[in-house]
Design goal:
- This protein is an alpha+beta fold.
- It has a single domain, classed as Endonuclease, Chain A, CATH 3.40.960.10.
- The protein has six helices and four strands.
């Protein structure tokens, strides 16, 4: 995996995402899950501590549910299939690759967003407030 990482280190907002990923992201923006839609209502228009978030954002070889470039923060919402062992391994590898790109990933289950939105928003704000005091490479 280290040679894979070295081939894709990129300082841009999209971290070298290929054109195909952009096309898929456009489709996904029009098919957001109910949980994604609910969280987006709290992230759009710089509502989250004044930071700009993008939805279904191409980054590296992936599409982030939500991404703030200034913070280097991805927020992922996980449905049921993320509980399967194979998917958990893929998620772990994806997070490692993104961390290598100086991007942090925080994850929430769809149910958390749908049933405990205030708790989710508080966790995101806490992450932002803790991150702001640390310089980003």
């Amino acid at each position: 995996m280290s040679s894979f990482k070295n081939n894709y280190k990129d300082i841009g907002m999209h971290k070298g995402a290929p054109p195909k990923i952009f096309a898929i992201a456009r489709i996904l923006r029009n098919k957001m899950t109910p949980a994604e839609t609910k969280l987006w209502e709290h992230l759009k228009n710089n509502q989250m501590e004044g930071f700009k978030f993008r939805r279904q954002h191409p980054i590296h070889l992936f599409i982030a549910d939500f991404y703030c470039h200034k913070l280097g923060l991805i927020i992922e919402l996980d449905g049921e299939y993320h509980n399967e062992e194979e998917q958990m391994l893929k998620d772990k590898e994806r997070t490692e690759l993104l961390n290598f790109q100086n991007v942090s990933v925080i994850r929430f289950k769809n149910e958390e967003v749908e049933n405990e939105i205030e708790k989710v928003l508080a966790e995101i704000k806490s992450f932002i407030n803790n991150t702001q005091h640390q310089p980003r490479p």
